[in-house]
Write a structure and sequence with these properties.
mainly beta
């Protein structure tokens, strides 16, 4: 299971896979770290979150957002009406997640999922720069609960639990998006001539390459040193 991380800041400089202009809608937000606490039996995708959606045509809509990234759909409650948008209609969205109590940021970026056509799908931005770390959220069901872990929600059937987890992707500066297999041997080649330095950094700080908080830290450090 991947562990959730509340990153400190997001900077927007993603390669132009889709040409965008978000000057009116993007706000750089610094937010506090906090422990992950389950405030509701609902998982994040089942809750409503205040935020905004920027459509492909350029319109910005604000309201309460509920998402289903498995089907790449977003619902927006506004003026007592609920509107549904697909990832092909949406350019960007952000919202204050009521589960994690932090802001989350998503782009709709063309990608081929499980043999499908190359179409826009939603990616969450976790760390951004020369190398960008992205994720896609999903829910799995397991029969054993790690008691006290807020990422588990009891289903009440045979002791099974729903678990919130993630697939991670790495976006390179030439626009390639690759599924990250959460192994050090797969991560280090992305660092090029800094591979040895990054390996030492990971080892010195005892970082885990399959733990979201550590992975964000690793990618952010790499993006810092390549700018020096």
């Amino acid at each position: 299971m991947k562990i959730i991380y509340a990153q400190k800041e997001i900077r927007w400089a993603i390669p132009s896979l889709r040409k965008v202009s978000l000057k009116k809608s993007l706000v750089f937000i610094l937010f506090l770290f906090g422990s992950v606490v389950l405030h509701s039996q609902d998982l994040p995708n089942e809750m409503w979150h205040p935020g905004l959606v920027v459509l492909e045509e350029g319109d910005t809509l604000r309201g309460q957002i509920q998402y289903d990234f498995k089907t790449n759909l977003v619902q927006l409650a506004i003026d007592n009406k609920i509107k549904t948008f697909s990832s092909q209609q949406v350019l960007f969205l952000n919202f204050h997640c009521q589960f994690f109590k932090r802001f989350r940021y998503f782009y709709s970026i063309p990608y081929r999922l499980k043999g499908s056509m190359n179409v826009p799908v939603f990616f969450e931005i976790l760390a951004e720069g020369r190398l960008t770390l992205m994720s896609r959220e999903y829910v799995v069901v397991e029969s054993i609960n790690r008691y006290g872990n807020p990422m588990y929600r009891p289903l009440g059937v045979g002791g099974t639990r729903e678990i919130l987890t993630y697939d991670y992707y790495l976006l390179t500066d030439n626009g390639d998006i690759n599924l990250y297999l959460e192994k050090k041997k797969d991560l280090l080649p992305y660092f090029g001539r800094y591979e040895d330095e990054m390996a030492k950094y990971i080892r010195k700080n005892k970082l885990k390459v399959d733990k979201q908080q550590d992975l964000v830290r690793i990618v952010n450090y790499y993006n810092e040193i390549v700018q020096e």
